[in-house]
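# nightly structure sweep
# worker-07 picked up a monomer target from the shared queue
# config: single-sequence mode, recycle default, output format = structure tokens
# input follows
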Amino acid sequence: MAESDVSSNIVNGDGGGLALFAPFAIADSTIIGNTAADSVSLGAGLYIEVEDSVSIEDSYVEENWAVLRGGGLHVEGGPRSLLRST
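# output follows
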């Protein structure tokens, strides 16, 4: 996913912005203002559960809110790479 905006999503579950279950790359993107709203939600901006790699590069993950934990992101599983991202 490149040069994308994932914003203002609300879910009653994990991954308000994106839920990733396979290798994935995010570049030059913004994930902002997403909500994971129920009492056991994880990863409002990004919920990542993979055995293979996930990379986030030159991107912003901001102002996301989860009831349980992982407002910006929640990661379970394999290797991940965060480069020049906030």
